Amino acid sequence: MYAENKGVRIWYEIHGQGELTLIMIPGFQIVHSEAFKRYYVPFLSRHMRVVTLDLRGSGKSGQPDEGYDLENWTEDIHAVVEAAGLDRFAMAGSSCGAPTCIQYNANYPGKVSHLILLNGFAKMVRSNTYPQGMPGEAVKGALQFWHDQPEDMLKGFIELIFSEKYTLRGKELIWQWAHETLPEIWGKGFLCAIVSNVDEYLDNIDIPVLIIAAKDDQVVFPSASEYIDQKIPDSRLFLIPDSGHGFSRTWPQVSRHILDFLMPDNKVLVSEKDEKSAPRFLWISSPIGLGHVKRDLSIANEMRKQMPEIIIDWLAIDPVKSFLESFGEQIHPLSDALWNECIHVESYCEGSYSLNVAEAYWEMDKLLNNNFMVFYDAVRENQYDLVVGDESWELAEYLHYNPSLKTTSFVFMTDFIGLSSVSDDEIKQAHVYNVNGTWVEMREKHPDASDLSIFIGEPEDIPDRPFGEELPNRREWAKEHFEFSGYVLPFDPANYSNRQLIRKDLGVPMEAKLLLLAVGGTSVGRSLIEKSLQAQKYLDEKIPGIRTVVLCGPRIDPKSFGRYENVEFKPFVLDPIQYFAVCDLAVIQGGLSTAMELTALGRPFIYFPLKDHFEQQEFVPLRLQRYRAGVRMDFDATSPEDLALSISENIGKSVNYHPVNTDGAKKAASMILGVIGKGES
User: Fold this and answer.
1) What is the mean pLDDT of residues 122-133?
2) In the chain, N or C: fewer CB atoms in 10 Å?
3) Spatial distance between the Cα atoms of 277 and 2, rounded to a whole number of angstroms
């Protein structure tokens, strides 16, 4: 939506609803409203109405040649206020947005109910009475630099905003946002910040004021916020440790302070838990495929055997949510507020059989930011004894960088350690390095944030090499930070040993050669199904009477394929293990869960790792080599005729796999219950 001030169009958006309204004001024109929408808005808009806007010269707003000063900015904001029909509201300003908010409050007394100043200042230039400001010569030099070499100045300025290590994502975003406008506008916006001086208004502010400053800010030193706090009567100041100007990883703390400030009655007061009440757990399971939730449910059921009274709430989205509901599990109502990771990851299919999951994760930050704060709301509103997160990397990261948000014990589980680069692109390699560096650093800063970390497997399943240059060896690092449960099977292979009985139940004659095509819980494997179907005409010649069953999973419509003789398409099957157990050969992707389940059942299989999928290209093959399991093939290098030949050579073939342990779920359950002082030894 647009408001207009003297012919200049100002873009604004309204998020959420409620009696309370908060307007959020960006700094200057190298950023715009996306800086708020990426971090704060999804959380805050669940509790109040939030209005965001793009300053003139940035984002979707007009880009006039003139008007880059506080007076025009405040009039632009007032145009939004009028267009949105706002009467009284809270205002939050970040960096240069702080003096803009103070100026607006002075120009329009009675409109603003609360002020929130984030890494802000009242004036910028140093003087005898304001030693925390920038020296005059530095100011002149910076302005000249913005004018003469704007690209270099922008790059250096961004480095100051994100002064913490491993913050490349934030740097890339500001670089992108800045280039949505003109370089000459950057300098005009910065000049406004330099000459801004709202010092005269501070003593007369008579509304509640919250001031939040990063202790390690290299752009606006914390002393500028301390100065404002001293001048404004009854203001509240919070200093955020381990944080630079952009609140890169500490924005969840900022969000919490804003909510508590604006809605103090909403602040949850945790009472002492009745020792006789049943232990209550919150469980978050990765929705990328169904392998995670199957093992999670297996572990949870083992925990119930050891401690029947426990209550488990699941914070989950589809397909995981539907899977859990089919077993009668209890879904947390805030699950509806989660954003879907599965759909996001599937959108990164690069070509017919490729998925750069590392890049998908890199650009999933906005989604994960929302989901972390949904989790925070869940634990804020309920008194849990324990949180379990299966590959909930956002929980691990933000709890480690924001330990004050941790309200209960936290258990983290994963079956891989660190990303791996599968691209020759230096930028994508840098993304992988930044993620790995973050995961290493977060445990160095606050090692106690995770009460227990479990690796689903053995140390030998982790590549014996560094995370990256000057980063530790991942296997040795994992030994230091993780416990090892062994692989977790969601079933007992002994229950599927009677192949004749299972085949009878499925309507498959014992003498038939059964080929199984299975592509897991996402839609990425459709190309593999299609290639396998193209091979069917060769199979009919090589293996007379062969029967093929295609398990399409929850994300592929079986009706979307044509009709094939001796081929049966199955929609989502709740218990695919029965098909795994009786097949003579399976053709699968390179996903860990399906491959390990076939290995445990002693069935031959051919697997095609997805191109550009670091886990399927490196981690899964490493583990399968240890079990002497599976025949690896390359999708692009395999023709339908080649596939048919390989199928004919391997169907019904005897295998001699290394046995898969069957007590992983029980072992993991005991580890988790041990965190609360329960469980079997």
Assistant:
1) 92
2) C
3) 53
For residues 483-509, average pLDDT: 95
H or E stretch covering 412: strand 409-414
Q: Do the bridges between strand 8-15 and strand 49-53 make them parallel or antiparallel, or are there none, so unpaired?
A: antiparallel
Angle between helices 183-195 and 150-161 (to 10 degrees): 60
> Distance between CA atoms of 261 and 266, rounded to whole angstroms?
10
Domain with CATH 3.40.50.1820 in the chain: 2-265
pLDDT at 181 over 80: yes
Torsion of CA 128, 134, 136, 140, to 10 degrees: -170
CATH fold of 2-265, please? Rossmann fold (3.40.50)
Residue 5, CA distances (Å) to 82, 83, 100, 384 in order = 11, 10, 16, 50
> Token pair 């969000």 is at which residue?
255
Listed in sequence order, the residues at least 6 apart from 8 whose beta carbon sits closer than 8 Å to its beta carbon are 56, 61, 62, 64, 67, 76
Q: Do 551 and 517 touch, CB atoms closer than 8 A?
A: yes
Report the topology of domain 280-490+666-675.
Rossmann fold (3.40.50)
In the numeric block, which tokens belong to residue 390? 């299966």
Residue 34 structure tokens: 């996306």
Amino acid at 535: A
Q: How high is the pLDDT of residue 273?
A: 60
Amino acid at 108: Y
Could you check whether the bond before residue 308 is cis, i.e. omega within 30 degrees of 0?
no
d(CA 268, CA 383): 10
* pLDDT tens per residue across span 332-374: 999 999 999 988 988 888 667 899 999 999 999 999 999 999 9
Instruction: Cite the residue boundaries of each domain of the chain with CATH code 3.40.50.2000.
Output: 280-490+666-675, 495-650
Per-residue pLDDT at 681 exceeds 70: no
Q: What is the pLDDT of residues 321-335, one digit of tens each?
A: 999 999 999 999 999
Cα 137 to Cα 130: distance, rounded to the nearest angstrom: 15
Instruction: Name all contacts of 418-423 with Cβ < 8 Å and 24+ positions apart.
Output: 418/467, 418/474, 419/358, 419/361, 419/614, 420/358, 420/463, 420/614, 420/617, 420/618, 420/619, 421/358, 421/614, 422/356, 422/358, 422/611, 422/612, 422/613, 422/614, 422/617, 422/618, 423/356, 423/612
Kind and range of the H or E run holding 115: strand 112-118
Note the pLDDT tens digit of each residue in 54-77.
999 999 999 999 999 999 999 999
Instruction: Match 């001699």 to its residue by tokens.
Output: 656
CATH architecture assigned to 495-650 = 3-Layer(aba) Sandwich (3.40)
Mean pLDDT of 1-9: 97
Per-residue tokens: 570: 């199955």
Cβ-based neighbour number of residue 430 at 10 Å: 15
Q: pLDDT class for 545, splitting at 50, 70, 90?
A: confident
Quote the pLDDT of residue 270. Answer: 53
Strand partners, 586: 516, 605
pLDDT digit string, tens, across residues 548-603? 999 998 888 888 998 888 899 998 888 899 999 999 999 999 999 999 999 999 99
Give the position of tokens 């040795």.
476
The token duo for 455 is 């690796």
